[in-house]
Design brief:
Blueprint lengths: L1 E6 L2 E4 L4 E9 L1 H5 L3 E7 L6 E7 L4 E3 L7 E5 L5 E6 L8 E9 L2 E4 L3 E6 L1
Parallel strand pairs: 2-11
Antiparallel strand pairs: 1-3, 3-8, 4-5, 4-9, 5-6, 7-8, 9-10, 9-11
Amino acid sequence: QVQLVESGGGLVQAGGSLRLSCAASGSIGRIISINAMGWYRQAPGKQRELVAALTSGGSTNYADSVKGRFTISRGNAKNTVYMQMNSLKPEDTAVYYCNAESPYGSTWGQGTQVTVSS
């Protein structure tokens, strides 16, 4: 079993920055088996959408709406993923969820609120 714990959300003015962190914990075997980690977000009344993803091989994928503003990266411990969010816009307001994919299935964090004021 893998657990994901997110941190770093909060309230920021438009144009500001936030850094989200997600740490995976659990059995070493399950953590090693993770082949991709990413961030999704869900705004009120909208479907959850992919924001950014990072594979174990280092490939990244970004939603068009965040390209050039958000950067996903892996920590030295490799069980941690970060997302640096710059030039934030009010439309980035949502609950952000960390996700991990492995042969055992998909794991989600509890979510962290990001609110961008205009």
